[in-house]
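Listing S7. Sequence submitted for prediction.
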Amino acid sequence: MLPKTITPSGVLMEIAYLIASFALGGGFCYGLWFIYTRKDITVSARQGMNPEGLRYGSRAPGFGSAKKEIDRKLAIVENRRRRQEAISSRLALEDAERQAREQLEQTRAQQELERQRIAEEARAAALEEARLANEAAQKVRDEEDEARRREQEEARLAAERELRRQEDLLAAEEARLAEIADAQQQQIASNNANSKAIKELQARLEREGAKSSDVQVSLMWNNYNDLDLHIVCPSGERIHGGNKLSACGGELDVDANVRAETRKPVENVFWPEGTAPGGQYHVYVHYYKKHKKRRSKDPTKFQVMVSNGGDTTEYSAELSAGDPIMQVCSFSVSTKEEREQIKRELESELAALKTRFESADLDGSAMLSVEELAEATGMSVEDAEVIHKQADKDGDGEVSLDEYLEAIANLPSAPDLDSLSTNEG
């Protein structure tokens, strides 16, 4: 083992350690000496000495009293700390409550604002919905108005087209018929209607439920072929199977043999009593179709009856398949004022005739002999005898005013056309 080398610095450190040890030991010894040499301190050497064992001779509190004082002050400090903590807790609680109230108020304010916002949005949505509904309703109304305007315009244009078509058709027909008018008129026999033809016509009209009036045009023939009655009104409008109801009130209420249905067909056009407008009317017959039926031979004979203000006129002619439309006749209807005047005149004449009958009725029986009838009517005895014989249906030798009026209404002025009503075609 090598010997330890001693350096100067090591020597100095050893010396410093020794000096420090002597200084500490001397200080400790001095302290003990000082304690034991003080006269105001007594030391109790009893076992278990407590902090109160050291007392000062001046009866001043010792170490235990200092501890109690320290503990008391510490307790005061602790109490102050606890009060401060309580105050801080209460302040914190109050601050928390305040913050909670502020938060609640803020939440309520936000909720109120949200409610107001939602209510405002709902009002805005309702107003927008109402606006859209009004716009939709207005759009619907506008569309309906536009549709009505279109319908009215289409109806007006259709009426204008129909009127132009009627005028063109009438003009073309009149131009064509003007060339053959003379020939056609030679085929038409115009005369007052005979009683048997009228009865046959009335039977057919009753069978079809046709209507009668003061202005009426009827067509009848005797096979299965389809003839059409055409009437051109004073306004230029044409009544036929394609236009059964005219603007002036005329109506085609019976249209026969569109299909081959009867061998005794009839067609009828009438105006309600007293409504036919005044002016010139033109009557045409059109051979529309030849049906393939037995005994439907051509030419087809037909008969037209025109009733105009109580006067009935009969026209007869014939047509074959392929013939052009035929103008049968024309007649003029008096205006409403003229018809009323005629009615008043007829009523006046009837009243005068009744007065003459009553004057000629010497026995007051309301029945007249031949001589009395001649006196009442102003005719000769020979003429009165003819009328009297026809009117005396019961053969008692006397006639009443009603029998006389019926007789003169049914007097034929042309041969009986019963052969036409029974023609097999």
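Caption to Listing S7: primary sequence and predicted structure tokens for the chain studied. The longest strand covers residues 279-289. Confidence is low (pLDDT under 50) at residues 43-58, 183-193, 411-425.
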